[in-house]
Design goal:
By secondary structure, the protein is α+β, with helices and mostly antiparallel strands. Helices cover 53% and strands 11% of the residues.
């Protein structure tokens, strides 16, 4: 029976996405910090157009792991258009360089991103940048190291270190698995030797006893029928001893395979197999419910399926023995990394007839060894409500599982799903199937690494802000390009002065005595220098701006005055 994801599963999904949201928020805040730092200086002719580009960068940033090349190149182009996208591009370049293994592909990708930053900054300079193409090139050359090159080099170094550490860990795990395999082989050979010794010595003696008992039975059939019954008892006891000896030899045999009706098949541990086990328990009078979450286990290694089969079978066997009247729930959750098996039963209405037999605990020991040698975790114990619970998590791919730390043998329990002499005994698990998957290790840096990366991004953001402010500060302001606006009648003296129309002492001196009468109501006039030359030989054109008592422009007069030109030195007599 399948079921929908529960609330804890949804909370785990939200927690898994929290780091990605925090990273996106961090780089966007860094970009906003760069924009505020430059805009607060009043150097941006159009301060608001970069903000939509930053919003687009915030949307593209979470896609950097799925589409690394496309996202990095798109953010590089946006950085050339809007400098505040630089921190987002820097974080993306670091992530892409860290995850890209091929050195040539990584170098080509970073080089293409750097060229895109410079080209986009130069092309967009007349409209969105400093105003001229050379200043756009300068801005691109400043943003390229901070947004692409330096983060890319840091990501390359960290990625190589991370891959080296992972290779060393894999080598250590392989060596540990080889050592455990060698130890297991030694135990197998020793057990096989003991089994052979018992078979040759004890089995031979028991065969002789059975043979002589049979002969004695035939001899006493007529001579003494009463003693014949004793001979029959000896022969039957010898036969039972031989059968028990064979069972003991099976326990001491190799651990890597099963014999008899429980031999491993392709269906062992699959959903159909577990449903068959549950159905057998229902036929035996136990109320069992199966909850299967996730896909089937038919594609998983044999060791994983074998462990799942043993966990369910052993637990149900012990429920039959200790809590036959209790309700039982079997839950199998098949995820991407682990397979979790949980078997728990409620308290039985009455103590079972065999409650005095506490068992030897060998079945529980065998389950724990099987799960831990696969790299999983095993826990079993009574519930506060009186029932019992078995919980085991087995790696879906045991080849990538770390070597577990062996724990002590668990205590023996009564009245639960474990703690009896199961049919398997304390036999060991199958060896894990080593897969060639590239299992990425964890982040490994912890809080210190995150703080270091955050400080590095902050330093790069400061450099971006300083470089951008320098380029915009040295570039000519766009508002002074082209002809200046002319003063209009009615403007105040402050507005006219703001247009650069100021009084010039030389022009005033030239107009003195040659200017026309001032208009009525004028209390003062200014004579700016217009940069004009002589309109004709011997005359100079002058513009006069007159203001009333309220300092408002009431007239603009233009007239000519005679000019004085000294003769050239060679013209002097």
């Amino acid at each position: 029976m399948s079921c929908t994801p529960s609330v804890p599963a949804f909370s785990r999904l939200v927690r898994g996405r929290s780091p990605a949201l925090a990273e996106t928020a961090g780089v966007v805040l860094a970009g906003l910090g760069v924009w505020v730092a430059v805009a607060s200086l009043g150097l941006l002719p159009n301060p608001y157009p970069p903000l939509p580009a930053l919003a687009v960068g915030a949307v593209l940033f979470p896609l950097r792991r799925r589409f690394p090349a496309a996202v990095l190149l798109a953010l590089a182009a946006l950085t050339g258009l809007a400098f505040c996208v630089g921190p987002v591009t820097a974080a993306t370049a670091y992530s892409v360089a860290r995850r890209t293994v091929a050195a040539r592909r990584r170098a080509r990708l970073l080089a293409a991103a750097a060229v895109l930053v410079v080209v986009a900054a130069a092309v967009a300079a007349p409209w969105l940048g400093p105003g001229r193409v050379p200043y756009g090139l300068a801005l691109g050359l400043i943003l390229t190291p901070t947004a692409v090159i330096v983060p890319g080099l840091v990501g390359t170094t960290y990625g190589q270190q991370r891959r080296l550490v992972r290779a060393l860990r894999e080598r250590g795990d392989a060596a540990e698995r080889a050592r455990r395999f060698a130890d297991s082989e030694a135990r197998i050979h020793e057990r096989s030797r003991i089994a052979a010794e018992m078979h040759d010595l004890v089995g031979h003696r028991l065969s002789l006893i059975s043979l002589h008992a049979g002969g004695l039975e035939l001899a006493l059939e007529r001579a003494d029928p009463e003693l014949r019954e004793e001979a029959v008892l000896v022969r039957r006891t010898t036969r039972d001893a031989m059968r028990e000896l064979r069972q003991a030899l099976g326990v001491l045999g190799p651990l890597g395979r099963d014999t008899g009706p429980d031999a491993l098949t392709d269906a062992t541990g699959t959903r159909a197999d577990i449903e068959a086990l549950v159905g057998e328990s229902r036929d035996g009078g136990i109320a069992v419910r199966l909850d299967w979450i996730g896909p089937d286990l038919d594609a998983r290694p044999a060791g994983v399926r074998r462990a799942v089969h043993r966990l369910v079978r052993e637990s149900l066997t012990n429920v039959h023995r200790y809590a036959g009247a209790a309700h039982v729930t079997v839950t199998v959750v098949h995820g991407d990394e682990t397979v979790r098996v949980t078997v728990h039963n409620g308290a039985p209405p009455a103590p079972p007839a065999s409650a005095g037999d506490v068992g030897t605990g060998r079945g529980l020991t065998g389950l724990r060894e099987r799960v831990e040698l696969l790299g999983g975790t095993f826990d079993a114990g009574p519930l506060p409500t009186g029932g019992f619970r078995v919980d085991a998590a087995v790696p879906a791919e045991p080849g990538d599982a770390p070597v577990p730390r062996r724990s002590g043998a668990p205590p023996r329990e009564v009245g639960g799903a474990t703690g009896s002499d199961g049919p398997d005994g304390p036999d060991g698990p199958d060896g894990p199937d080593v897969q060639g998957t590239d299992h990425a290790s964890g982040s490994g840096g912890g809080v210190a690494q995150r703080v270091t990366l955050a400080l590095g991004l902050g330093a790069l953001s400061v450099l971006m802000a300083l470089g951008t402010a320098f380029v915009y500060g040295t570039a000519p302001r766009k508002e002074f390009a082209g002809p200046r606006p002319l003063p209009r009648i009615g403007m105040t003296y402050g507005d006219v002065a703001g247009l650069g129309v100021l009084d010039n002492a030389a022009v005033r001196a030239a107009a003195t005595g040659h200017e026309p009468p001032r208009p009525d109501g004028a209390v003062g006039c200014i004579y700016p220098f217009t940069g004009g030359t002589e309109s004709r030989p011997g005359s100079l054109r002058i513009a006069r701006h007159c203001f009333d008592a309220a300092q408002r422009l009431i007239a603009v007069d233009r007239f000519t005055v005679p000019s004085v030109r000294d003769a050239a030195p060679w013209e002097t007599p």
